[in-house]
Write the structure tokens for this entry.
Amino acid sequence: MLIAVLDACVLYSAPLRDFFMRLAVRLYQPKWTDAIHEEWIRNVLNNRTDITLDNLTRTRALMDRHGGDCLVRNYDTLSLTLSLPDVDDRHVLAAAIMSKAPLIVTFNLSDFPANILSEHNIRAIHPDDFAIMLYLSNPNEFVKLVRLHRLALKDPPKTVHEYLKTLSICGLLKTVVILQNHIKDI
């Protein structure tokens, strides 16, 4: 099964986080670290006064439980030996190396230069391209999981068009184009 480390910027947005969690375990094995959790939670709390630490701690626990073998540990020593443009991203690369993940899913592609990642047989990939990769790996299962995700939304529920608009806002533009061919199925 494909293994991918999800960067904090991907987990920050609740709709995007929920989308990739819905696809997790069935289409890929997600990986993250406690530091990745701490980063996205800190950023949400800094930007959203309507959300509490208790809510996010509950979300984190649910993610860890649903994500199977998702938590990467014992990467700290390796992290110190790595070189990236932003030293604060070294733990993400270390997590990918430790978990043998060939992909780091991130919006911040420039923070993970291909020449450095290629030394470890890892590449950074935009969330939209990752979603398309998952679709291409198993189109029927992908569409089925997208439908289940949309139908699980209750507060508020979303029509197919509202759901696709949300995915567009989250940066999954190419994925939305593909999903428009499956409107009746989602």
User: Anything to note?
Assistant: Residues 134-185 form one domain.
